[in-house]
Design a protein that fits this description.
The chain is an alpha+beta fold. The chain contains five helices and seven strands. The longest helix is centred in the N-terminal third of the chain and has 17 residues.
Length: 172
């Protein structure tokens, strides 16, 4: 498996993974990623900013994530807790794995690569958030050693469980 920056022409293939994730979340009764988000325009912005990454296996895209370093306004306010670090951090957003590859540890590759990037950039930590009912993602986040830090709110005001892991803990 290989980890790459996504290209604009890969949006249709990436959207198949996103749509499958949206369908799964809807079937689970989770209102995360509904209302046409993320969409091709979101992916295009991520790609143009150099923040969209994919994992390919045998030439096929099997996972996607936006990985962004620098201040994320969504993370400025945290309730019922606090962040572990105050310095430069990276954030993993819009992570999804193709249905046929779920449960195979693919998300851990995204985490590992993000920690490598963070270490190279001198970041202190990586942050991630998810819907409280997204139990599969919560398990993956916790299994990777992220620490629960509190509640943040998305642009539309929806609460999300927020996690952080220090780079020196996650560089393995």
């Amino acid at each position: 498996m290989n980890f790459f920056r996504a290209e604009i022409e890969e949006i249709p293939e990436i959207m198949k993974i996103i749509k499958a994730a949206q369908k799964y979340l809807k079937e689970q009764g989770i209102d995360q990623w509904q209302n046409n988000y993320p969409n091709p325009e979101t992916l295009k912005k991520d790609i143009k900013a150099g923040n969209s990454y994919i994992i390919k296996k045998e030439g096929k895209i099997i996972a996607v994530a936006a990985i962004i370093f620098g201040e994320d306004p969504t993370y400025n306010l945290i309730e019922e807790g606090s962040w572990l670090a105050d310095g430069l951090y990276g954030v993993i957003h819009r992570a999804a794995v193709a249905p046929e590859y779920k449960g195979q540890g693919i998300i851990s590759i995204i985490y590992r690569e993000t920690f490598k990037m963070g270490a190279d950039l001198g970041a202190d930590s990586i942050r991630i958030d998810t819907h409280q009912d997204n139990l599969a993602m919560r398990r993956a986040i916790e299994k990777a050693g992220f620490n629960y830090c509190g509640i943040i709110y998305t642009k539309d005001g929806s609460p999300r469980l927020a996690y952080e892991k220090l780079i020196q803990e996650g560089s393995n």
